[in-house]
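=== Discrete structure encoding ===
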Amino acid sequence: MTTFIALLRGINVGGHNKIKMADLKQLLGSLGLMNVETYIQSGNVLFEANQDESSLQRLLEEEIKKAFGLTVTVVLRTGKEFLQVANHCPFTEAEIRSAQAAAAGECLHVAFLLKQPTAEGVELLKPYENDAEQYHIAGREVYLLYHDSIRNAKLGSRLHKLGTPATVRNWKTVLKLTSMIESRDVR
């Protein structure tokens, strides 16, 4: 069995695409996924399965559409992949502290991409980086560091230029999901 994290894109945001986490947990359990656990209302689900990532993604998207009538992108990472994301933040502690001092809210986020961005997509994102909005792309993740609120950031709203769906989680959520994975003794 492999531990997976499913990150649902765009649910329970601003009163739209509502899915109760208890209902989502029940749905995934009914699909034969094991040890299903959710975290907060933004669509973070841990579970164990024997299927591969692409099969699981299709299954979850289809079943969510059937059960809730919503077309939702599901981004998956194995527990090991997620731990690597948390353990390899490219920004230094000093950079993060500097952003925290200036930011109105959370300053560090990770955008989880459905697939690795193309070189053309990366070039299209470059003009939006500046002293107040920085990013670092590592495979299928984009680490985002804001010196202001994410709500005011132009960079985050331009992630679509990478040519692949993305769902963003703040660093506190990344760390909480990491601790949940570690409690499962994932190696």
Summary: The longest strand covers residues 2-8. The chain has two domains: 2-84, 87-170. The beta strands are 2-8, 34-39, 44-49, 74-78, 108-113, 133-138, 141-146, 166-170. Residues 2-84 form a domain with the Alpha-Beta Plaits fold (CATH 3.30.70.1280).
